[in-house]
C-alpha cells in the first residue's frame, strides 16, 4: 500500500487540472437540486372543469356555485353545449366536463330523481379519478341540501352519521418538497458516482495509459483504490452540500432523525455505486460503451427506485427489480430518517442489504477486472 | 455526393461495430416502454393500511371488511397492544409498515346506532403528501359508501346520480399517459448523447484533425456523423410504436405520417443540439456530462408527463417552453390518442420546427474548422 498516497495525489491532480469537468460535477447536481424539486410536484390540484348548464335553473346555479366555491376546480368556462365543452378537453384547457341536463330541476322535483353527466379526460387516469371523486363528494353534499330543501324537516329521519377526522403525520403542511428533495439528492449522487467512476478507468484504457500502469509494480488493488477513493470523497462532498446547505437553506428540510445514520448509510452506499461504476468499466473498452451501459442502468435505477412513482402499485415482478435496486433503499432511508426520524433499529434490514450489495458488486468487479487485464 | 455517402457508410460501420453502444440505442427504449407499460403507474393502489379497531363490534367489523375488500388497500395485520394508539402508529409509520391508519374508537357501533353519531379517525403518513391526500380521499369514500349502505339513503327520494364517462382511456391505463412521454424522452436524449460523443471522440483521439485536412467539406464530415443516428432514431421510433400498439394496446387514432413528420422535427432538433455540444466541448466526459447529467432529469420533468406542468412555479413553467420534449409530448398525445390532425397542433409544430432551425443554425455558426 506504499504507492497508494502517490496514486491518490496523481488522481487529485488530474481531477483539479480539468476544471471544466470539476465544475460540471459539482455545479450540475447543485443547480438541479435547487430547481428540480420545484418541478416535481404531483399534488392533484388545478383541475379544470368545464360546466355545461343546459338547465339555467335555480338548482343548477346553486350546484355550479357550490362547485366553484369548493376551491378544488378551476372553471375555464360555462358552455352552452357539450360539443363546445369537448373542445376544451381536446385543447387541454379542461380535464372534466360536468353536464347539467335540461329540465334538471323540474325532473328532480317531479320524478324525484335525476342524472348528471360527467366526462373525464382519462389520459392521465389519476387526475381523472381524483377529480371525479372530489366532484362526487360535492354533488353528494348538494344532494343533501336539495333534500333538506324539498322534504319537510319533520319527515327527515335522523340517520346515523360517521364523522371522519383526519390527521396528517410528519408533514402536516403537506409540503411536497420535503418528500422530493431527499430523493432527488440521492439520485443525483448516484448519477455522478456511476458516471465518473465508470468513465475514468475506461479512459485510461482508451488512451492506453492503463498498460503503462500495469507494467509498474503498482498492485491492482492500489490502482483501484487510488481511483475510487477520490470519487468517494467527491460523492460525500456533493451529498453534504446538498443535504446541509441546499436542502436546509432553500427548502427548509432539516432531518428529524440522526444525521449520523444518513452518513453511515452514505458511506456504504457510495462503495456500492462506485463498485457498479467499476464493474461497468471492466466490461467496456471505450468511454462511449461505458457511458451507454451506465446510462442504461442509471435509467432503470431512476425509474425503478420509487423516486417518482409508488413501488406499492407495481406488479410483483417489478417489485423484485425495485428491491434489487440499491437506489430504492437509500431513498427509503433518506425519507425515513429525514421526515420520520426513524432510528437504526428500524433500518437494520436496510443496512444489511446495502452491505451485501457492497460485498457482492465489488467482489464481482474486482474478479472481472483481473480477468480482463 | 458520392463522397458524402462514403462517409455515411463509414459512420454506419462505426456504429454497428460497437455492440455495447447499440445496447443503449435499442435497449433503453425497449426497457423504458416495458417498464412504463407494465411496471410504472402514477396510480396509488395496494397501499398498506393499519386498522386499529378498538370497538370490535358487528358494525366496525363490517366497516373493516369494506376497507379490506378495496383494491386501494392492503390491510397490514397488526396487534393492538397498548392503550396509546398514537405511539403505536408512530412506530408503524417509522417502520414503513403502513401508509395510513384507521382508528375506530371504543363503542363505535353502539354510538353510531343509538346516538346516530360515530367517529372514525384517519391518520395518514404525510411524508408523501400526494399519497396521503389520495389515500384519505379513497378511505373517506369507502366509509361514506358504507354509511349509505347502512342507512339505505340511496332509497330516498330526490336522488341525484352521476353518470361518468372516461374519455380516451376508459380502462385508466398508465401507459396511455406514459408512452408519448417515453417517446419524447428517448428521441430527445439518445440523439443528443450519441451525436455529441461520437464527434468529440474523434477530437479526443486526434482523428478529427485528419478528417479536417481532407479535401472534403468539414461541415459534411460532421453531418455525415449525424446521419446514422438520424436513421437509427427513426428505427427506434418505429420499434416503440410497434411495441406500444401491439403489446400495450395503445391507440393509434391519428395519421401515422404526421407522427413521423413531427418526430423528424424532434430528432433534427436533438441532433443539432448534439452537434452544438460537440462543438463547445473538448472531451467525451464533458460532452456526456452535459448531455446526460445536464439533460436527463430536466427532460424527464419538463416534458410534462411525470408531473403536471401547471403545478410548477411560474418561472419553471416559462422555462419548460424551451424544452423540445414538452411540445413533442403534446403533439404525440394529440395525434395518437385524441386522433387530431395538423389543424389542432400547428402551433406546437411551428415551435418545434423553429427550434430545429434555431439549433441547426447555431451549431453551424459555432462550428470550428480549426481545433484550438
Cα separation of the termini of chain B: 29 Å
Task: Classify the oligomer.
Answer: heterodimer
Q: Bin the helical content of chain B.
A: 55-70%
Radius of gyration of chain A (CA) equals 29 Å
Task: Tell me the strand order in the biggest sheet of chain B.
Answer: 2-1-3-4
Major sheet description of chain B: 4 strands, mixed
Roughly how much helix do the residues of chain A carry, as a percent range? 55-70%
N- to C-terminal distance of chain A:
20 Å
Mean pLDDT metric of chain B: 83
Total E-strand runs of chain B? 5
Instruction: Name the chain pair whose interface involves the most residues.
Output: A-B, 123 and 122 residues
Query: What sort of overall outline of chain B do the alpha carbons produce when their principal axes are compared?
Result: elongated
Can you tell me the residue ranges of chain B where pLDDT is under 50 for at least 5 consecutive residues? none
Number of individual domains of chain A: 2
Sheet-strand content of chain B, in percent, reads 5-15%
Q: How many beta-strand segments of chain A?
A: 6
Q: Estimate the global geometry of chain A from the Cα principal axes.
A: elongated
Q: How much is the average pLDDT of chain A?
A: 84
Order of helices and strands of chain A: HHEHEEHEHEHEHHHHHHHH
Please, how many domains of chain B?
2
Amino acid at each position: 500500500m506504499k504507492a497508494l498516497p502517490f496514486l491518490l495525489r496523481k488522481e487529485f491532480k488530474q481531477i483539479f487540472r480539468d476544471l471544466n469537468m470539476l465544475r460540471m460535477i459539482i455545479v450540475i447536481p447543485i443547480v438541479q437540486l435547487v430547481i428540480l424539486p420545484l418541478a416535481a410536484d404531483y399534488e392533484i390540484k388545478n383541475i379544470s372543469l368545464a360546466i355545461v348548464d343546459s338547465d339555467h335553473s335555480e338548482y343548477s346555479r346553486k350546484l355550479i356555485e357550490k362547485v366553484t366555491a369548493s376551491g378544488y376546480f378551476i372553471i375555464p368556462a360555462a358552455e352552452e353545449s357539450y360539443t363546445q365543452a369537448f373542445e376544451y378537453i381536446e385543447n387541454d384547457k379542461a380535464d372534466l366536463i360536468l353536464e347539467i341536463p335540461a329540465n334538471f330541476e323540474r325532473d328532480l322535483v317531479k320524478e324525484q330523481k335525476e342524472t348528471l353527466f360527467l366526462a373525464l379526460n382519462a389520459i392521465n387516469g389519476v387526475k381523472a379519478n381524483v377529480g371525479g371523486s372530489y366532484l362526487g363528494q360535492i354533488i353528494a353534499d348538494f344532494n343533501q341540501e336539495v333534500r333538506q330543501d324539498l322534504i319537510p324537516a319533520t319527515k327527515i329521519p335522523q340517520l346515523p352519521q360517521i364523522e371522519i377526522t383526519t390527521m396528517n403525520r410528519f408533514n402536516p403542511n403537506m409540503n411536497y418538497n420535503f418528500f422530493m428533495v431527499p430523493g432527488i439528492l440521492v439520485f443525483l449522487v448516484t448519477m455522478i458516482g456511476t458516471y465518473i467512476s465508470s468513465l475514468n478507468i475506461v479512459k485510461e484504457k482508451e488512451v492506453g495509459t492503463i498498460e503503462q500502469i500495469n507494467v509498474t509494480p503498482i498492485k491492482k488493488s492500489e490502482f483501484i483504490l487510488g481511483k475510487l477513493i477520490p470519487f468517494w470523497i467527491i460523492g460525500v462532498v456533493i451529498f453534504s452540500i446538498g443535504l446541509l446547505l441546499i436542502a436546509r437553506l432553500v427548502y427548509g428540510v432539516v432531518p428529524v432523525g440522526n444525521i449520523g445514520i444518513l452518513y453511515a448509510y452514505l458511506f456504504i452506499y457510495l462503495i456500492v455505486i462506485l463498485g457498479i461504476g467499476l464493474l461497468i468499466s471492466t466490461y467496456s473498452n471505450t468511454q462511449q460503451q461505458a457511458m451507454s451501459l451506465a446510462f442504461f442502468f442509471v435509467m432503470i435505477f431512476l425509474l425503478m427506485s420509487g423516486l417518482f412513482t409508488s413501488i406499492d402499485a407495481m406488479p410483483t415482478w417489478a417489485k423484485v427489480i425495485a428491491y434489487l435496486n440499491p437506489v430504492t433503499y437509500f431513498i427509503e432511508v433518506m425519507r425515513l430518517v429525514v421526515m420520520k426520524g426513524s432510528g437504526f433499529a428500524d433500518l437494520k434490514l436496510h443496512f444489511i442489504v446495502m452491505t451485501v450489495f457492497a460485498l457482492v458488486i465489488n467482489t464481482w468487479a474486482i474478479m472481472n477486472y483481473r480477468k480482463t487485464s | 455526393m458520392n463522397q458524402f455517402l462514403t462517409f455515411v457508410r463509414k459512420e454506419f460501420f462505426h456504429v454497428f461495430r460497437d455492440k455495447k453502444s447499440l445496447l443503449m440505442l435499442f435497449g433503453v427504449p425497449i426497457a423504458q416502454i416495458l417498464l412504463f407499460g407494465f411496471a410504472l403507474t402514477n396510480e396509488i393502489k395496494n397501499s398498506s393500511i393499519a386498522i386499529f379497531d378498538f370497538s370490535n363490534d358487528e358494525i366496525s367489523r363490517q366497516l373493516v371488511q369494506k376497507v379490506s375488500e378495496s383494491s386501494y388497500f392492503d390491510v397490514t395485520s397488526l396487534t393492538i397492544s397498548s392503550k396509546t394508539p398514537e405511539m403505536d402508529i408512530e412506530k408503524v409509520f417509522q417502520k414503513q409498515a403502513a401508509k395510513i391508519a384507521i382508528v375506530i374508537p371504543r363503542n363505535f357501533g353502539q354510538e353510531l346506532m343509538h346516538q346516530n353519531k360515530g367517529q372514525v379517525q384517519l391518520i395518514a403518513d404525510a411524508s408523501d403528501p400526494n399519497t396521503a391526500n389520495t389515500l384519505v380521499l379513497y378511505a373517506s369514500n369507502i366509509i361514506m359508501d358504507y354509511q349509505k349502505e347502512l342507512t339505505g339513503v340511496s332509497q330516498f327520494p330526490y336522488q341525484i346520480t352521476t353518470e361518468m364517462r372516461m374519455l380516451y382511456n376508459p380502462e385508466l391505463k398508465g401507459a396511455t399517459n406514459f408512452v408519448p412521454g417515453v417517446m419524447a424522452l428517448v428521441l430527445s436524449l439518445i440523439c443528443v448523447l450519441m451525436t455529441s460523443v461520437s464527434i468529440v471522440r474523434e477530437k479526443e483521439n486526434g482523428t478529427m484533425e485528419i478528417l479536417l485536412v481532407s479535401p472534403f467539406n468539414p461541415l459534411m464530415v460532421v453531418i455525415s456523423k449525424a446521419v446514422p443516428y438520424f436513421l437509427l432514431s427513426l428505427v427506434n421510433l418505429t420499434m416503440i410504436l410497434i411495441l406500444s400498439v401491439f403489446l400495450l394496446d395503445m391507440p393509434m387514432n391519428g395519421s401515422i405520417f404526421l407522427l413521423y413528420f413531427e418526430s423528424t422535427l424532434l430528432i433534427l432538433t436533438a441532433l443539432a443540439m448534439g452537434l452544438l455540444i460537440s462543438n463547445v466541448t473538448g472531451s467525451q466526459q464533458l460532452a456526456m456530462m452535459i448531455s446526460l447529467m445536464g439533460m436527463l432529469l430536466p427532460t424527464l420533468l419538463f416534458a410534462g408527463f411525470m408531473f403536471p406542468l401547471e403545478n410548477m412555479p411560474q418561472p419553471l413553467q416559462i422555462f419548460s417552453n424551451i424544452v423540445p420534449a414538452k411540445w413533442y409530448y403534446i403533439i404525440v398525445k394529440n395525434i395518437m390518442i385524441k386522433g387530431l390532425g395538423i389543424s389542432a397542433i400547428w402551433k406546437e409544430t411551428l415551435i418545434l420546427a423553429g427550434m430545429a432551425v434555431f439549433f441547426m443554425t447555431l451549431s453551424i455558426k459555432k462550428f470550428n474548422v480549426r481545433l484550438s
